[in-house]
Amino acid sequence: MRLFSNTSFNSYLLPFFGVFASTRGYTILVLVLAQYLSARYILAPQKTWIEHLTDHRLFLLVLASSLAIAAGYLINNFYDAEKDQINRPKQYLLHQLISPDLQLFFYGCFNLLCLGLSFFVSYRAVLFFFVYMLAIWLYSHLLKKTFWASNVFAAVLAITPFFAISLYFNNLSTWVMYHASFLFLIILIRDLVKDLQNFKGDWVRNYSTVAVVFGVKTTKYILTLLMLFAAIAVSFLLSEKEQLGMMYYYFQSTLPFLAGLLILLWKADGQKAYLWLHNLLKFLILAGVGSIVLVRYSI
């Protein structure tokens, strides 16, 4: 006799996959890895892996960051459901494995858990995450529809968890700021490419994105300028050769990579081409996360 029927099993399994898809579980796992690698090799390299992994306050900060971002994805999906139905129908179907009411329920639970965990770190951590959660809601509810704030605000929100770890280790050195500037610019570029990719749905839903307001050609000029700024940030990082270790070669390779992206950008015409660009920018970020460990190896 079966303890659980297939129907009963699916009724529990499908919502789990729905929550994982809606919260971009894979992205959050990468974020956790990036935070720990940054802590070990960039922010506090004097500490060993054992010290970092047994630091309960660092663990709570990373977990609180993950919960806040997961909640942000949920509320973003809630507000963007109609737009995603046009731009990303397959992803929309995954998100609909859990109902909008259930999305709001998990949104509230994740935020409460985030504040509860940050309470065991410090009152400043509680204040930090409260403001962060409020900013995410403000972005999803209001700022996402305003072209002058949407992309910049989204990029700032994306790198904020790393500032939480930087503040914890009291390390906001020039070298760290160079890293943050590069990451901010790459995320901003990716977000603008996503606007080009989602142009049709944004136009239908009356979202005032840069692409909708200024047009595709002007958006490409803005992206060209941002790629130039990213290359300048890389040049500053390359000047810190001793601190970068073998990660120097990652940043050295980003210059021709950005040049290739620029060529593809101006040749791109259609959603599939912009999707390719978006995925290549994701690869650049993932490669950067993986190359953090190379800091330990001197050239």
Question: Can you describe this structure?
Answer:
The chain has 299 residues and is an all-alpha fold. The protein folds into two domains: 135 residues, Tetracycline Repressor, domain 2; 127 residues. Helices cover 81% and strands 0% of the residues. Helix 9 runs antiparallel to helix 15. The longest helix has 32 residues. The N and C termini lie far apart (63 Å).
Write the layout of secondary structure elements.
Blueprint: H1 6-22, H2 25-43, H3 49-53, H4 56-87, H5 89-95, H6 100-119, H7 123-141, H8 150-168, H9 174-197, H10 199-204, H11 210-214, H12 216-238, H13 241-244, H14 248-267, H15 271-291
Helix pairs in contact: 2-4, 2-8, 4-5, 4-6, 4-7, 4-8, 6-7, 7-8, 8-9, 9-12, 9-15, 12-14, 14-15
User: What is the class of the largest domain in the CATH system?
Assistant: Mainly Alpha
Mean pLDDT reading: 84
Distance between the termini: 63 Å
Summarize the helix and strand pattern as letters: HHHHHHHHHHHHHHH
Principal-axes shape call: globular
In the CATH hierarchy, the architecture of the largest domain is Orthogonal Bundle
- Helix count? 15
Q: What fraction, in percent, of the residue positions are helical? A: over 70%
Which spans have pLDDT < 50 for at least 5 consecutive residues?
Answer: 1-5
Q: Supply the helix-strand structural class.
A: mainly alpha
CATH topology of the largest domain: Tetracycline Repressor, domain 2
Query: What share of residues are in beta strands?
Result: under 5%
Instruction: Quickly count the domains.
Output: 2
CA radius of gyration is 20 Å
